Amino acid sequence: MTVADPAGGLRTAFRGHPAGIAVLTATGPDGPVGMTASSVASVGVDPPAVSFSTARDSRLARALAGGGTVVVHLLDDADTGLAAAFAVPGAQRFGAGVRWVTLPTGEPWLVEVGTALRCRVLSVTEVGASLLVAAEVVELLGLRRRGRPLVWVGRSYRAVPVGDTDAVTVAADARPAPGRSPCAGG
User: Fold this and answer.
1) Which of 149, 135, 74, 138 is nearest to 103 (CA)?
2) Domain membership flag for residue 52
3) Is residue 182 part of a domain?
4) Structural domain includes residue 183
5) Helices (H), ranges, the chain
């Protein structure tokens, strides 16, 4: 089957593909900036690295121009409100109701989020109107889960059950080899 509109087809295809949700924060020329992202992925562990994308004209892109650092907050279902707040273009993201502090290194950290990764930008690649960023994880800020992992699928936030054998069944032959990640290179 051939799709006449690849961009529309891509959007349709990814509506059914769950993506983990994160909030990315950094410090820009005018203060703290942040955005909700569904594009965060693990790249590898040697060095520990992640990737994500952002619009080329976003405040986050301007904050990361020339390198810099970013905090990747991995969200769970207790953070649905944060995900929604940081997804609104032009909204005041660091106002009342959002608990955050400035790290000694200068980045904003959303202290209620269970797990966050402070990262140093390694490379930025232009892809049309977007930027693909690779970043090395230089510090873990908390490593705790308060709820179920949060994903975006079907145009809404959903919680993914973990460890609930009634809700999730994994075929024995679909499991990765012991000590291996199901992801390439992991």
Assistant:
1) 138
2) yes
3) no
4) no
5) 6-15, 59-64, 80-87
Strand-pairing partners, residue 161, are none
Q: What is the CATH number of the domain that holds 122?
A: 2.30.110.10
Read off the pTM. 0.84
Residue 175 lies in a domain: no
Q: Are 117 and 139 in contact (CB under 8 A)?
A: yes
Handedness of CA 72, 76, 80, 81 (dihedral sign): negative
State which residues form the domain around 36: 11-160
Stronger pLDDT, 116 or 185, i.e. the higher one: 116
Tens digit of pLDDT for each residue in 133-161? Answer: 999 999 999 888 778 999 999 889 999 88
Q: What is the mean pLDDT of residues 5-29?
A: 88
Residue with the two structure tokens 């959007």 = 11
The answer to whether 160 and 151 have CB atoms below 8 angstroms apart is: yes
pLDDT confidence bin for 47, thresholds 50/70/90: very high
How many alpha carbons lie under 13 Å from residue 118 in its C-beta half-sphere?
A: 17
Number of domains in the chain: 1
- Bridge partners of 69? 120
